[in-house]
From TrEMBL:
This is Uncharacterized protein. It is a multi-pass membrane protein. The chain crosses the membrane at residues 319-343. Residues 326-356 form the Neurotransmitter-gated ion-channel transmembrane domain. Residues 112-319 form the Neurotransmitter-gated ion-channel ligand-binding domain. GO terms for molecular function: chloride channel activity; extracellular ligand-gated monoatomic ion channel activity; GABA-A receptor activity. The keyword Nucleotide-binding does not apply. The keyword Ion transport applies. Its main location: membrane. PANTHER family: NEUROTRANSMITTER GATED ION CHANNEL (PTHR18945). Keywords: Cell membrane, Chloride, Chloride channel, Disulfide bond, Glycoprotein, Ion channel, Ion transport, Ligand-gated ion channel, Membrane, Postsynaptic cell membrane, Receptor, Signal, Synapse, Transmembrane, Transmembrane helix, Transport.
Length: 358
């Protein structure tokens, strides 16, 4: 007796691998041939599911079907596993470099996993290279506002961006982005240098509208940490040459707890370019800011020897200001006080006016 072959037509409107496999395997048990319609509206999806059916372990690994138009396949039910393999192979071969990059989109969950992995087992109480190499912290300063300068209090104030860079190999990572740009919340979870200003009277870290801090992690473990600070520091002055004097106001900073055997400081861009003071940042009334010089040294104490970085801001007093404010008024007062002696002694009212003026 002749057997009649039965052909079943099915349409696939989804890229859910589980659904595809279930329908194909179900068809395999009821028909000799299966006509499969692949609809073009399922473009661009990507699945992450495994599927089984009819006792056959059919698996689809991230199948991505990219038909230009609706595709019709007529095939034997025994060839269903081959169809699934064909779908997978076509997707893999058809992916271009642009599609691969698209697949590596900057999904937030990817970076959440990177950060969680970086902080897993991380101890922010220990400096990088603890027990081994010395930690090198590179620094540079950008001055946004310099002044005022007080002769009475012998101090000066300035607004700066204070940048520090170091390498923490514990924070190395592999990922689709070279730099992780993070906010200030990450600062509290990793080790940061305990830098302080040795001659500072008062320093303010700005927190409006949020803490003014920049934190970045590079793939090789390099850390960039920037803060916006307002610093009021002492400036020793010798006023014996007033008002033709000049002063060098220092800014000294270094580590509070780590001696030079554990942590050192260097200038990021070298001594010449690591401290930037734009001309528009200084508008002092009594002084001209003529330049700045940097240096580094060490200071010894009973707890160890520490690296100290120093910036000297060179000030020169404005003669024009004091000529107008001090010299010319004094000269005019002396001259006017002598005029009364040249007035006729009988002109009492006039002599009285000039006599009372001084």
């Amino acid at each position: 007796m002749q057997s009649h072959s039965r052909c079943l037509s099915i349409s696939i409107h989804t890229l859910d691998c589980k659904t595809i496999a279930r329908r194909l395997c179900k068809s395999a048990g009821t028909a000799s041939f299966v006509r499969v319609h692949l609809k073009p509206e399922i473009l661009g999806s990507r699945t992450r599911q495994l599927a089984t059916g009819n006792g056959k372990r059919l698996k689809v690994w991230h199948a991505k079907m990219v038909p230009a138009k609706e595709t019709v396949l007529r095939m034997s039910s025994s060839s269903i596993p081959t169809l699934l393999y064909f779908i997978y192979a076509t997707a893999c071969i058809g992916e271009s470099s642009g599609e691969i990059k698209k697949d590596e989109k900057l999904y937030p969950e990817n970076f959440t996993r990177i950060l969680d992995r970086l902080l897993d087992g991380y101890d922010n109480r220990l400096r990088p290279g603890f027990g081994g190499a010395v930690t090198e912290v590179k620094t540079d300063i950008y001055v946004t506002s310099f002044g005022p300068v007080s002769d009475v209090e012998m101090e000066y104030t300035m607004d700066v961006f204070f940048r520090q860079t170091w390498v923490d190999k514990r924070l190395k990572y592999d990922g689709p982005i070279e730099i992780l740009r993070l906010n200030n919340m990450m600062v509290t979870k990793v080790w940061t240098p305990d830098t302080f200003f040795r001659n500072g009277k008062k320093s303010i870290s700005h927190n409006m509208t949020a803490p003014n801090k920049l934190f970045r992690i590079m793939q090789n473990g390099t850390i960039l940490y920037t803060m916006r600070l307002t610093i009021r520091a002492e400036c020793p002055m010798k006023l014996v040459d007033f008002p033709m004097d000049g002063h060098a106001c220092p800014l000294k900073f270094g580590s509070y707890a780590y001696p030079k055997s554990e942590m050192i400081y260097t200038w990021t861009k070298g001594p010449e370019r690591s401290v930037e003071v734009p001309k528009e940042s200084s508008s002092l009334v009594q002084y001209d800011l003529v330049g700045q010089t940097v240096s580094s040294g060490t200071v010894k104490s009973i707890t160890g020897e520490y690296v100290v970085m120093t910036v000297h801001f060179h000030l020169r007093r404005k003669m024009g200001y004091f000529m107008i404010q001090t010299y010319i008024p004094c000269i005019m007062t002396v001259i006017l006080s002598q005029v009364s002696f040249w007035i006729n002694k009988e002109s009492v009212p006039a002599r009285t006016v000039f006599g009372m003026y001084p």
